[in-house]
Amino acid sequence: METRSSTELCFPQLLNNSCKKPERLWSEAVILDMVLLVSLLTVTLNLLIIISISHFSSTHPLTSSSSLAVSDFFVDFLVGLLLMPGEIFRSTACWFLGDVICSLYCYLVCQIVSGSIGSIVLISFDRYVAICHPLHYATRITLGRVKCCIGLCWLGAGLYSIFYVRDELVQPGRSKSCFGECTFVISYVTGTVDLVLNFIFPVSIIVFLYVRVFVVAVSQARAMRSHVTAVTLRCSVNAATKRSELKAAKTLGILIVVYLMCYCPYYSYSVVEVNVTSTVYASFLIFVFYFNSCLNPLIYALFYPWFRKAIRLIVTLQVLQPGSCDASIL
């Protein structure tokens, strides 16, 4: 029986119980560098958006919509800061952090991903009420209720994550085949529940809400065009408000399409193979899954000129000057 060289093992002292060190090819190294660049870009862009919304409070006061946006972009920031580098380390290097940290990492992945999906559902509902029931928006979508919903969303994601990784939390390292790897195996029941609760159910709600938003937005756009000759100050203000709401709905629609494009490959493959994390395509599907967090701020920058102006003020350190929060960036 051929034995492996000690230099090829993660833990040479354990001999046959140790995992083999991953061998990185040139092409894999190039892809890895690109993924690290995407991770850095994700962290930077989402941090810029969070600073922009939070710092320029006089121009963009803290409202229910901005609170939901900050919550969503903070999730994307965590994906770039923790999950992307963690997946790179888990899949391309020997795991030296132990079984407990591996189990906690799996819990963190589930927590952040579930929280991200919940945030998108909340944003979709916020836009639905703003477009379809504008007269009731101020009374139904209050800042206090939004904060409560965000808290409940993360609490629910935390409880669901305990169910999802319960076996690993009870017995860390139960899924590994050798020392030096961090793997996570789920049962058929857990995989099916995750497919329903983390994909089919939220996607159904999001698509339903946005179809309603799209229908109402189209009717409102036609109404605005038909009354374009009525030029009064009040109508102009109302028209500007409507245009802002319609633009937000359009941006949300693009975000949802990108979300589905990034999330569908992972969950579509889970229909064929419930335990996706144990397949050879796991890392690729997971990185596509995470790539949504990088695209979100790019879409935001593309559709909102005030964000590009805010970036210039942040990069040039003008935000450090007294009274910079009162700067007009609209």
Automatic annotation (TrEMBL):
GO MF terms held by the record: trace-amine receptor activity
Annotated TM spans: 30-53, 65-84, 104-125, 146-165, 195-218, 252-269, 281-303
Top-level taxon: Eukaryota
SUPFAM superfamilies (UniProt xref): Family A G protein-coupled receptor-like
Cellular location(s): Cell membrane
PROSITE patterns (alphabetical): G_PROTEIN_RECEP_F1_1, G_PROTEIN_RECEP_F1_2
Chief location bin: membrane
GO CC, one annotated term: plasma membrane
UniProt KW keywords: Cell membrane, G-protein coupled receptor, Membrane, Receptor, Transducer, Transmembrane, Transmembrane helix
Membrane topology: Multi-pass membrane protein
G-protein coupled receptors family 1 profile domain span: 45-300
Stated family: Belongs to the G-protein coupled receptor 1 family.
Protein name as annotated: G-protein coupled receptors family 1 profile domain-containing protein
Organism (species): Poecilia mexicana
Lineage of origin: Eukaryota, Metazoa, Chordata, Craniata, Vertebrata
